[in-house]
Write a structure and sequence with these properties.
TIM Barrel; CBS-domain; 2 domains; eight-stranded parallel barrel; binds xanthosine-5'-monophosphate
Length: 536
């Protein structure tokens, strides 16, 4: 067992923040091309399986190894979650109340992936606040800094700070024409002897500015060169359009920030789940105002009328925000959603570790075949596939991507980590955290949004038909450590296949259909394991 580490929600610095929409809208727009799985061997494999009437789960297949010039540390695991939103690591955390709130989403984006904030909060506003917390975490550029006028007194500004609970002390000072003439800093406040002075008499006049379009890297270099901790960005008329704060810029530039999944304004990326029906647009509006990067229409049956209606409505209202839609498990369903404007498809019906959909409803395609069929059906569209549910080992991530997925959504493998919501419980001297299906009875009773996910919004609490179970998983320590192992396994797999990139893995992947003897042989055998491995 991993050593127990107490659950602690990371202390997020709450800085007053204005929506970064201005700059945030300039999303990374790379890779407009189409995905093309030129993989005849894979096509032949799945055609044969189909001819035999066979649909395959993770345990049914393993990838063939091949000639390789690639070492695991050399591979690139960069990929896409949706048309415009890239990932530096193909792992996405599930929109579940026992998995993803802001703490997990921050950790996911720092590891290069993305978290999907669940929608089972008491109010949509609370979900939007969680999104905002993620966007605030790396407040590298403030796109609408709070400014003061030159004739505002220090006393007035101090009381404004108190009233609004601003934690910062850097204010650009404007003349009444709205042009920047100076800067009030912590020093100016601390050293001011007379609070009745107007800002123009207390402010620092010697300041540096940079033009619109100054990047984080340029700002960092300039601030170091000029020894300034605040860098206002001004347009050609001298009006303030943004401001860099050194401590935040430094945080992004240093440490592991190269792998962080950040938007064009330097904020961590985050996604959030919505449902269907009347309330969906209102929720999406709050999320958009909080600068969410991706909206995920999160339902048990993505190929259904309410989902198409919601997709249309959301795309009309927010054409710049990518919308990932799910869940589906048939190629035709994926194609219909892409034709209707989806920017990403989430695949998986009944594959999750807490799902009972297949047993309760009797539907659902085993996950590897579902991924292949959906990816194949939309291969020319430029829309990526996220394989959601059923991943038990890191090797399944390699398999999912080999079958055509661009990213994987994890619930169980992330549950029990320190960053998940919920308390630690002790059972037989072992530490666990709750992990439960969003369609489990407990969640359905508590949440209209959960009932909506399963098309049972208006059913009474004694009439619900759950499609998930409630349970507990062992505590796993910091999620960063788990993610390292999961992505490490993928890297190894790519090395065995000889694939330098995710696209190459999709192009080179070929499978063996394995027997139950093959599966037994794949696990350790004839040994009593006396020491836990960190990845098995
Ligand atoms: P894993 O296998 O990673 O799966 O635990 C997580 C995914 O399972 C889906 N999910 C559910 N599916 N009933 C279902 O049929 C449920 O109660 C339920 N809750 C979550 C979801 O897609 C998640 O990402």
């Amino acid at each position: 067992m991993r050593p127990f580490v107490a659950v602690a929600r990371s202390g997020m610095k709450k800085r007053f923040f204005h929506s970064p929409r201005l700059l945030g809208n300039k999303r990374n727009n790379q890779k407009k091309g189409r995905f093309r799985m030129k993989n005849l061997a894979l096509d032949a494999f799945f055609q044969k399986m189909e001819a035999d009437g066979m649909a395959l789960a993770f345990k049914d297949v393993r990838l063939k190894s091949g000639y390789s010039q690639v070492l695991p540390p050399e591979v690139s695991v960069r990929t896409q979650f949706s048309r415009k939103v890239t990932l530096n690591s193909p792992v996405v955390s599930a929109a579940m109340d026992t998995v993803t709130e802001s703490t997990m989403a921050i950790a996911m984006a720092k590891a290069g992936g993305i978290g999907v904030i669940h929608r089972k909060f008491a109010t949509p506003a609370q979900q939007a606040e969680e999104v905002e917390r993620v966007k605030l975490y790396l407040n590298a550029i403030i796109s609408k800094p709070i400014c003061v006028y030159e004739d505002d007194t220090i006393e007035t500004i101090e009381s404004l700070r108190e009233e609004k609970m601003y934690s910062f002390q850097s204010f650009p000072v404007l003349n009444r024409q709205g042009r920047l003439i100076g800067l009030l800093t912590r020093n100016d406040f601390d050293l001011c002897q007379n609070v009745c002075l107007p800002a123009r008499e207390a402010m620092t006049q010697k300041l540096i500015t940079a033009p619109v379009g100054t990047t984080l890297v340029q700002a960092y270099a300039l601030m170091i060169k000029e020894k300034k901790k605040v860098l206002p960005i001004t347009d050609t008329e001298g009006k303030v359009t943004g401001m860099y704060i050194f401590s935040d810029v430094k945080r992004v530039m240093e440490g592991n920030s190269q792998s962080y999944n950040i938007d064009s304004a330097g904020h961590l990326r985050v996604a959030a789940a919505i449902g269907t029906g009347d309330s969906a647009l209102g929720r999406a509006t709050l999320l958009a105002n909080a600068s969410v990067d991706v909206i995920v229409i999160d339902t048990a049956h993505g190929d259904s009328k309410p989902v198409f209606e919601t997709l249309k409505e959301i795309k009309r209202a927010f054409p710049d925000i990518d919308v990932v839609v799910g869940n589906v498990s048939e190629g035709a369903s994926a194609k219909r959603l892409v034709d209707a404007g989806a920017d990403g498809i989430k695949v998986g019906q009944g594959s999750g570790s807490i799902c009972t959909t297949r047993m309760v409803a009797g539907i659902g395609c085993p996950q590897v075949t579902a991924i292949y069929n959906c990816a194949k059906a939309i291969q020319d569209s430029g829309v990526p596939v996220c394989a959601d549910g059923g991943i038990e080992y890191s090797g399944d991530i390699t398999v999912a991507i080999g079958a055509g997925a661009h990213s994987v959504m994890l619930g169980n493998l992330l549950a029990g980590t320190e960053e998940t919501p919920g308390e630690i419980i002790t059972i037989d001297d072992m530490r666990y955290k709750h992990y439960r299906g969003m369609g489990s009875l407990g969640v359905m009773i508590e949440s209209r949004e959960s009932r909506n996910r399963y098309g049972q919004t208006n059913l009474g609490k004694d009439k619900l038909v759950p499609e998930g179970v409630e349970g507990a998983v062992p505590c796993k320590g910091p999620v960063e450590k788990s993610l390292y192992q999961y992505v490490g396994g993928l890297r190894s797999g790519m090395g065995y296949v000889g694939a330098r990139t995710i696209e190459e893995l999709q192009e080179k992947a070929d499978f063996y259909r394995i027997s139950s003897a093959g599966l037994a042989e794949s696990h350790p055998h004839n040994i009593r394991i006396v020491k836990d491995a960190p990845n098995y």
